[in-house]
Amino acid sequence: MEKLQSLSVHNSVVINNLTERLQDSNNKLSSMSEERDLLLANLTEITKEMEKLQSLSVQKYTCPAGWRMFRCSCYFLSSESGSWSRGRQDCREKGADLVVIDSTKEQTFLSTFTDEETWSWIGLTDKDKEGTWKWIDGTPLTLRQCEVTGSSRYWETNQPDNGGGDPKWGEEDCAHMRSGKKTEDNWNDRSCDASLRWFCEKNAGV
Ligand SMILES: [Ca+2]
Ligand SMILES: [Ca+2]
Ligand SMILES: [Ca+2]
User: Fold this and answer.
1) 131 CA to centre of ligand 2 in angstroms
2) Nearest bound ligand to CA 189?
3) Burial 178-196 (b: 16+ CB within 10 A, else e)
4) Which residues, by Cβ under 5 Å, contact ligand 1, an ion?
C-alpha cells in the first residue's frame, strides 16, 4: 500500500513536471511566432521600399510622349519643315536643342529613325567661320571625330561643299542628315534657309 502511495506521488511529480515543460514550450512557441510575425512585417516593409525604389529608378529615365529614348537622351523628329533657326527655336521651346551627335551609335540610331528617306537639320554649323564646323554646344567637329571609334566621317562624298560655288545653292552653313537610307556618310551642308525637318535632343528626365 505504501508502495502504491509513493508511486502515485511520483506520478504526480512527473505530471507536474511535464505540465511545466509543456507550458514552457508553449510560451517559447508563442514568443517565436511573435518574432516570426515581426520578421514577416519587416520583410513586407522592405519589399515595399524596394518596389518604390525600383519604380523611382525606372521613372528617372523617361521621355515625353512623342519622343524616343536612346541611351538616356530623348529624340524628336519634327513633322513640320522649316529653316535651321526655326528648327532650333522649336527644339528650345520644347526644352531641348538640335541634336549633337557624339557617337557612332547615336549616328546609327538617328539614321534609322525612319524607314523613308528624311532630310533633317542637326545641330552642326559653320556660320561663325566658313569651313570650321561646330556643334551648337560649342564643340568643334574635329574633337568629336577623334572620340568616335571606327568610321568617324559622316559627310556624304564630296560634302561639305558650301554649295560648290553654284549660285543656285548659295552659301551652305548648316548641316542636315539624310536618314532612312545610309547609316554613315549621310550628312550634307545646305543653305540655313532651306526648309527641312529637324531632330531635337534632350536628356531623359523624371
Ligand atoms: Ca547626343
Ligand atoms: Ca559653309
Ligand atoms: Ca552641300
Assistant:
1) 6
2) 3
3) bbbeebbebbbbbbbebeb
4) 100, 102
State the CATH class of domain 68-203.
alpha beta
Q: Which of 178, 65, 175 is nearest to 114 (CA)?
A: 178
Proximal ligand: closest to the CA of 144: 1
R_g of the chain computed on alpha carbons: 36
Report cis status (omega within 30 of 0) of the bond before 160: yes
C-alpha cell at 147: 572620340
Q: Return per-residue pLDDT of the chain as tens, 206 residues.
A: 677 777 777 888 888 888 899 998 888 899 999 999 999 999 999 999 988 887 765 567 899 999 999 999 999 999 999 999 999 999 999 999 999 998 889 999 999 999 999 999 999 999 999 999 999 999 888 755 545 444 446 999 999 999 998 999 999 999 999 999 899 899 999 999 999 999 999 999 87
The domain segmentation of the chain, as residue ranges, is: 1-60, 68-203
| Measured distance between the N- and C-terminal CA atoms of the chain, rounded to whole angstroms | 90
